[in-house]
Structure formats: structure tokens, C-alpha cells
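Protein 1 of 2
SEQ + STRUCT:
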Amino acid sequence: MTQYRGLDKPKGRSFFLFWKAMFVAAMLALVAFFWVASSSVEYIWRWNRVPQYFWVNEAADVRAEAEGDVTIIDRQGNEQRVVVRDASGEEHTHLLPGEGKVLVSSGDFAYRGDVLGRYQLNRPGILLEGLWVTLEVSVLAIIGGIVIGVVTGLCRISINPMLRWGAIAYIEIIRGSPLLVQIFLWYFVVGTLINALLEHVGLGGISPLWYGVMALALFTGAYVAEIVRAGIQSVHRGQMEAARSLGMSYAQAMRKVILPQAFRRIMPPLAGQFISLIKDSSLLGVIAIRELTKATREVVTTSLQPFELWIVCAVLYLVLTFTLSLFVQYLERRAIR
């Protein structure tokens, strides 16, 4: 008869039911703790004000730019036109959306700043805009990090001393300095030099967003390079020898045999690195990029609602990272089949 010890012993249904109940009890206790703690704090919760920072739905006024007579009120396509002629005879055109309401009549006299019309404004709020910037920056940095990491990882195992030493120098420099310092260097040093050069030749400067993306991509690329290097070296060298014996070149064997096996093994650490990248994008607020964290900070400053807004900010980051985690798990299942 087989003897089971420790973790080898089969577990019955009651074992799993008990520990599932313990998990639920722990979650309920955690919720109760935060409920009691928040109730003891002298703070007025205003959750009803949070939606306005996701979507703005408010009345907007169209005001007269100059003092004069209202001469023309007509419709041009999907817009309404109100023309005001000042004392010098110059006409000032004011446009309203088609569904807007004109509050003056032809022949009326309007003073500068008077309301000529009103319409309903519907647009994304500051939190939704910040979430979109975070998503945009993260996707671009992930793509750049993958490209830089794969190329650097291949150079890291190259027999060419120049490529190998260059890859090692890049990896050690990037991993040995804080991301915040690298963002400052990209924005204040590299960005200043490049924009000054572009302005000197008559071209416009590059947006700070792209310097932030480059800082994140290069930072992530260094870690991805080591992950790729470890994944390639984890594949038995007999695979390369077998591929070369079939007549494949080194590049063909790497592309068709080694890398597909390596990528299946490095997906979990890559997912962790990209999740960290999404959270690290919150540092871009220091160079005036209004990503999710900076947008939340601005709203907290004006609304004085730190509890609700920071909780919402954390939940939005959780949605992004959890979605990425599920996507990587889906790719893992597809790769195993």
C-alpha cells in the first residue's frame, strides 16, 4: 500500500471547501477593516462627483468677441452662424453646433462678452484622457521594448565581441540607474539638444511624450534583453545543432527553431515586465505628460477628494494590468497547443 506524506497526500472535498471559506472570510474581514477605518475618519465621501471626471456633459456658452449689431443668423451645414458687425464695419463670426440654441435675434445689439448662444458640451473628462495617454504610452513602449530587447538579447549571446560588449554595456548602464533619472536625462538633456537642433534647421520640436516613450522603451528593453537571453540559453543546444545539420543557417535556425521555443518559456516574465512598465508610466508626470497619475493629482488638487479619486486611479491601473495578464495567459494557452 502506498504511503503518502506531506503534500503528496490526496486532499478531500472538505479540505478545499474549508480553505475556500477561509479565503472568503479573509476578504470579508479586509473589507470590514477598511469600512470601519473609513467610518472613523472625519471625511465626507462624494462618489457622486467622480463620473464628471470621466465624461463632461455641461452647457457651454458662445460669447460675443466684439461690441456691435447682430446682422446675420443662419445655418451652415451642421452649424449655426451668428455674425456681429462692430462700429468699424468688421464682421465677427461665431459658430454653434446645429443642436445649440441661439439666444439673440437679428438686429439686436451685443456687448463684448454677451452670450450669443448656448449648446451642450460632451467630451471625455480628464481621467479618461489620462487613461488614454497611459494606454498609448504603454503600448508604444512595450512595442519598442520588445524590439530593443530581442535585438539586444541576440547581441548579448553573439560571438562578435563588439555586439556582445555593446549589449552588456547597455544592459548594465540602464539597469544600474533609476528610471526617474533616465526620464530626466531624456527630457532635459537629450530633448533639449534635439529640439534645439531641430529649431535651428527650421523644424518643430518633438513632444515630451516621445521622450517619455523612449525612456520607458529603453528601460524595458534592457530587462527584456536579459529575459530573451535566458530563454534562448534555456533551449538545449542540441536543437541548434539539429537545425544546422538539416542545412539551416544560424539565422534560420534561430528564427524557426530556437526563438519559438524560447518565447513560450519567457512569456510569464515578459508579462511581469510589461505590467511593471504600465505602472512605471506614472513617472512621466514629472515631464508634464498628463497620464493617469498626473491627471488624478490635478483633479485631487481642484476637487479636494483624495480618497475617492486615488481609489479610482488604482482601480484603473488594475484594469489595465489585469487585462494584459489575461491576454498573456491567452497567448500562453495558444502557444502550448
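Protein 2 of 2
SEQ + STRUCT:
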Amino acid sequence: MFRNPLSVGVDIGNHSIKTVVLQQKKEQFELAAFVEVELTKSVINDQHSVNNAELLSAMRQIKKQLPWQAKAVTLALPDSAVISKVVQLGTSLSEEEAEFAIVQALGAASPFPVEELWFDYFPLNSDRFSDAVATTPFQVFASRRETIDNRVNTLIKLGFKPKIMELQTHALLWLAEHLAEMGSHYNQWGVVDVGKRHTEFCMKPQGSAAYHREIRFGTSMLDAQDGISAVAGNNAEQFTKQLAEQLKRQIQLYNSTHPRSGIKGLWLCGGGQDVVSVSLLQRLIGLDVVWVNPFQHFSCANKVELPQSMSSQYAVATGLALRGLL
């Protein structure tokens, strides 16, 4: 029996699968392994389901590079694959009545039949069973069973034990919280994940639910594809200027709705290390900007060598591994 079990975070992307394995050692976390496998073709379709054969093949390669006892897995779904809804429920309802009311609310909000969904819910305050309030808000998350099951079942075939399914935004915010704990001046920082097709902008305001926006802008802007004007060559300046315009709109929108929890800086992560100029982005948006180094505050197990280049593409997987330890 292992007193300190390993936590495996698996980030299934469109173009690669990234895995991070963490273990708690006394008062700190230890990096036990990290692996990225490039995909020859996209493993996720437009409905967020995965190609089981492609996923199985990639995860089989990854498993060979992980510690043999790394079994407990935390996975993530894109936020766009999840229905998020806040439902007001009477505090006098029994658990069965509360679940029935949530099912009814999902039926009205979901484009899919409720029987095709997996869902989870929890109260957003501590007054759920208080006689002093008549209702309490519940956060409800739901996603198609097929979307979840084909990920989970594929990993089970390889001997993994999927334990948690998180939102991708929440994985990034788990990492941001960890980084803030390691350095107090990083409190109230947002996270920007620059992807191939989309850029994710997320923030955890004090005392509020997570804030997230998906921006239809990514590094594919550098390619002459999909009818989008390509940025000539690897012109980091032009790409950074376009990214700054996108982010300024999102920051303005966020600040207008959360005036008491203003953004003090931004973590950058994802695969855009070669096409984003941090110094230029800082000047254009007027905030501190830092590329995430998700492994910065971990000790390393024997035989684990940190990457020579930046490792910000492991941000989601690292956040998931952290989530599995908590």
C-alpha cells in the first residue's frame, strides 16, 4: 500500500495529449513524470467525442513512460462541452426532491435529452439546511454521457482509474491558485491559454464563481487555413497585437462585471511560446504578463529531468494532477 499515491492529470487536446504525474511529499509536491504525445490527426470531433482507437494508441505510448503505480487519473472537458447552470432550490427539499428539480431544470436548458446526460451539483453557500433562508443556489454541471464515457472507458482499458472529471477552466484555476500560494504578489491574476483554434480566458474573482470566456482566436491565425488571413511568417509582433486586442475587450468586460476583483496580471500558457511577445503584450494591455512554468515549485523524482525549453503547454495537465491530490 502506497501512503502517498500518485495523481495523474491527463489533458486530451486536439493535437497532442499531455500527462503530468504528481505525488505529495511531506509539505511539497513532487513531479514524478510528464509526457506529451503528438497526434497524427485530431482525436476530438466537433461534438467533443473522442476517437477511441486514436486515444487508446496515444495513451498506451504514454503509459509506458509513467511510473507503474500511476493509476488515479483526473481528466478535463472543454468548457464548451459542459452545460453550467445555477438553480435556486428550496432548503426544505429532500435530496430526492432536489435532484428531481435539477433534472427538470436541465431538461429545459439542455439541447439533449436528460437521460443522455451525466450531471453533478452542489450548493454554492453553507445555508443549504438553514431555516433562515427559503432557497439556496446550486451549481449544476452536465455533459453528454458519450462525451464522458468514451474518455473514461478508454483509460479503464489500459488499467487507469479515472476518479475526477473537471472543466478545463477549473484545471487552469487550480494551477493559478497553487502559483498564488507560492508567491503572494500573484493574487488576482487571470489565466490565458493560447490554443490552436481558441484562446481561453479565465479568472477566479474573490467570493464568486469562476469566470470564463472562449475567444475564437489562436495560433492557426499563422496558417493560411479556414479562410482566415494568415499572419505573414512567424511574425510575433503582429500576432501579439491581435491577441492584445482580443484580451483588452475581455478584460474590459470582466472589470465591468467584477469591479471589486480587478485583474492584476495574466498568466500565459499553451502552445504560443514562439509567437507571443510578452514585453509587447504587457505594454499593450497595461498589465504584468508572465509565461506559466507549472513545474517551478515542485521537487523532482529521480530520473525526472525538467524540459530545457518552456513547459507552459503542461498547465492544464498540471492543474488536473493538483486537483487529484486535493
